[in-house]
Design a protein that fits this description.
heterodimer; A: 302 residues; mainly alpha; 77% helix; B: 242 residues; alpha/beta; Rossmann fold; 4-stranded antiparallel β-sheet
Chain lengths: 302, 242
């Protein structure tokens, strides 16, 4: 049983990361109306910049490092949106393609800043707690806490602040928002910058526990995308549920079946979800026509 | 002059000029119906007055103050309220959130916003009853009340309504017209751009006809739509001409 809880503990950590990055996906999708493919690179830059600062300066305070990492990635996110994406005037397909270009540029930046091996910044705080024999590092508690605070913070921001409500309104009906004089492009810049910071924050808190390679951001971004897409892209409440579904499937399959196929199971499961959505949207049937035909033939024969 | 004065307004989209020197006036307490065939420039005119489009020539005066060159939120604060075509509400937000968002866009202070919401609720009690409801769950008539209530947040001197009858049952439409009349009688300029002109003319003071980006006729409403050949011929088709 301890083994089960230990596995569950690791799942909560993974789910926290998928949630943080997933909220970044939602933030851009809800406010800007397109997908930010570069979010995996913003994520990895959170770890890389943190590691680089540790290596090249004498800064050891996690709070100061966090501030500098968020500032650096925030500036990159701001520039990317303001210089490269805003001129596209909200064209979702062009913006999507542009974010692929941004991802490639940021990947090169991450590569230039980090060695070819896995980087592992220092733990913020050493030690573990052992409730019921389950080892939980303090650093993991920081990851859980960060995900919890950010989720509650975002929910409160969108529900209880004028700026949050205005961002929701501009997504709900952009022409109407513009007619009221709301500066929708400025809101898009803010959302894109915030999503970059969220992703970087996720890597900043988790990199000390497991280490990250400069090119490992995309896989996390894909899993986070799966997490937010299971219930419906853009729904932050659904993102919490989706993050635990993806991390849980991955974790339990890896522990009790085989680590080699855990990611395959997640991706195949996602294909299944996409299939159900596609069928529902097109008004078709879940069972393909050839399968129904075979069944009828078999029934006729018997 | 007190009221709205539009003089020689030229505006459009890029190279396409839609308004070609529009001029009209509407005094306080007046309800003006703006009619014209599709593509005449009615919605473009309202977009230019509210500040969504920048005119290349002409002036828009509200109580003698020039509006051209001011951003939308300044015009809203100066007293121009717009109920756009299709109502321009945020269906996923509650009625209260719709009002708050509009108040923030107009840069109203907390107390001003509270007073504005109170004004909207007093004007339309149904808005007060539905404050916590999402807009998408309201009927078409209730949504129109919310849209007009939202335009009243800043206690506007000029209220512009773009196709307010769209999607409304006849009885609800007549109630909206009564509301427009009441708002005009309170001393506002009310400009209604409308396809269902016959009903609108019954409560209006004047009717201006827009054709190919110009006001081609501006008459008292009691003269009736039939007396306006541009309308009878090109706009009502068989309905009015018969």
């Amino acid at each position: 049983m301890t083994d089960f809880f230990q596995t569950t503990e690791a799942i909560v950590t993974a789910a926290s990361i998928y949630l943080l990055v997933g909220l970044g996906w939602n933030l851009v999708y809800n406010t800007c109306g397109y997908l930010n493919i570069a979010i995996g690179e913003f994520y990895i830059l959170g770890a890389v910049i943190s590691w680089k600062l540790e290596q090249s300066t004498s800064i050891t305070s996690p709070a100061l490092l966090c501030l500098l990492v968020c500032l650096a990635v925030g500036i990159l996110g701001f520039l990317a949106e303001r210089v490269l994406l805003r001129p596209l005037k909200g064209n979702a397909l062009n913006a999507l393609i542009m974010t692929i270009g941004i991802a490639l540029m940021l990947l090169q930046l991450a590569k230039a800043l980090s060695p070819a091996t896995v980087i592992r910044p220092n733990l913020f705080v050493f030690g573990t707690v052992r409730p019921g024999g389950v080892f939980i590092e303090y650093q993991e508690l920081i990851v859980w806490g960060t995900a919890f605070i950010v989720t509650v913070g975002l929910f409160s921001f969108f529900s209880f602040t004028d700026l949050g409500r205005t961002m929701r309104a501009s997504t709900d009906n952009r022409p109407a928002a513009e007619m009221l004089g709301i500066r929708v492009p400025a809101l898009a810049t803010m959302a894109f910058t915030a999503s970059a910071i969220l992703a970087a924050l996720a890597a900043f808190v988790v990199a000390p526990t497991e280490g990250l390679a400069y090119n490992s951001g995309d896989l996390i971004a894909i899993k986070a995308f799966i997490a937010v897409s299971i219930v419906g892209l853009g729904r932050n409440g659904g993102a919490v549920f989706g993050a635990f579904i993806v991390a849980g499937t991955e974790g339990y399959v890896a522990r009790y079946w085989s680590p080699d196929i855990s990611e395959i199971v997640v991706l195949v499961g996602f294909l299944g979800v996409l299939y159900v959505y596609a069928v529902r949207v097109s008004g078709g049937r879940l069972v393909p026509s050839w399968a129904r035909l075979r069944r009828r033939v078999a029934e006729g024969v018997s | 002059m007190n009221g709205l004065q539009v003089e020689g307004l030229v505006a459009g989209y890029g190279d396409l000029t839609v308004l070609r020197g529009v001029s009209f006036t509407a005094g306080r307490g007046e309800l003006l119906v703006l009619a014209g065939p599709n593509g005449a420039g009615k919605t473009t005119l309202l977009s230019t007055v509210i500040g969504r489009l920048t005119p290349s020539a002409g002036s828009i005066l509200l109580d003698g103050q020039e509006l051209v060159g001011l951003p939308i939120h300044r015009r809203t604060r100066l007293g121009v309220g717009l109920v756009p075509e299709g109502r321009g509400l945020f269906p996923g937000l509650t009625v209260w959130e719709n009002l708050r968002v509009a108040a923030r866009a107009a840069r109203l202070s907390r107390s001003e916003a509270r007073a504005g919401i109170e004004r909207a609720v007093n004007a339309f009690p149904v808005v007060g009853e539905r404050l916590k409801q999402k807009v998408r769950t309201l009927s078409g008539g209730e949504q129109q009340m919310v849209a007009i209530g939202r335009a009243l947040l800043t206690d506007p001197g000029v209220l512009l309504l773009d196709e307010p009858s769209m999607g409304l049952a006849p009885i609800v439409w007549s109630r909206v017209l009564e509301t427009c009349r009441r708002l005009a009688d309170e001393g506002r300029v009310v400009v209604v751009v409308e396809q269902r002109v016959l009903e609108a003319l019954e409560t209006a003071d004047r009717c201006a006809v827009l054709q190919q980006g110009r006001v081609v006729r501006d008459v008292a409403a009691e003269q009736g739509a039939i007396a306006i050949p541009e309308l009878a011929g090109t706009y009502f088709s068989g309905e009015a001409a018969s």
